Amino acid sequence: xxxxxxxxxxxxxxxxxxxxxxxxxxxxxxxxxxxxxxxxxxxxxxxxxxxxxxxxxxxxxxxxxxxxxxxxxxxxxxxxxxxxxxxxxxxxxxxxxxxxxxxxxxxxxxxxxxxxxxxxxxxxxxxxxxxxxxxxxxxxxxxxxxxxxxxxxxxxxxxxxxxxxxxxxxxxxxxxxxxxxxxxxxxxxxxxxxxxxxxxxxxxxxxxxxxxx
Length: 213
Known about the structure:
By secondary structure, this protein is mostly helical. It contains ten helices and no strands. The chain has helices spanning 12-17, 25-45, 52-59, 63-70, 73-85, 97-113, 118-125, 130-157, 167-184, 193-206.
C-alpha cells in the first residue's frame, strides 16, 4: 500500500480534468514528461509552489498544452494520483500474515523516509485541492481492497478465525502506527515499528478484535 502508491477513475471531476488512460505515442510521452515535472515541482516546492507554468517549463512543453489537457493544478494532481494506480504493484506474499504486514509497513515507512518525500508532499496537497482529495481517497480505498488478499490468505492458512474478519479494519490497525509515528509525530524512524505494529494487529485479529458480527 505504497504511495507510488493504484486506482481506477475516481469521480466525474477526475475524468473531465485528466487525459485518457494509457495514451500512446506522443501523447504518452507528453503525459510522462508532465507528470514527472509535477512530482518534481510538488516535492521541491510543495502545493503552494506548484503552478501550471512551472510544470510546463520543467516538462519542456508549452503551457497551453498543459492547460488544454489538465486545465489546472487540480487536474495535474488528480492525474499524478491516477498514474500511481496504474503501477503494477502487488501486496507482499511472505507466507504468513505477520510477515506480509511487516513487509507492507516497511514499504510504507521507506516511502515516508525519502527526503524530500513525494508521498508526504502529495498528502499535504490533498488538503488544498478537493479534486486531489477525492482522487487520493479512492486511491487509498483501492489499495486497501487490493491488500485484503493478505487477510484472505491468513484465514486459509488457519492464522485467523474462520469466521469473517473485517480485512479493512485489520489493515488500518496494522499500518496506522507507521503513519502516526512518522507523519503526525514527525519522530525519528523506528526500525522495529513495522514488525511491532504488524504483530499487534495479528494478535488482535486472532483474538477476534476485527470479527464481523
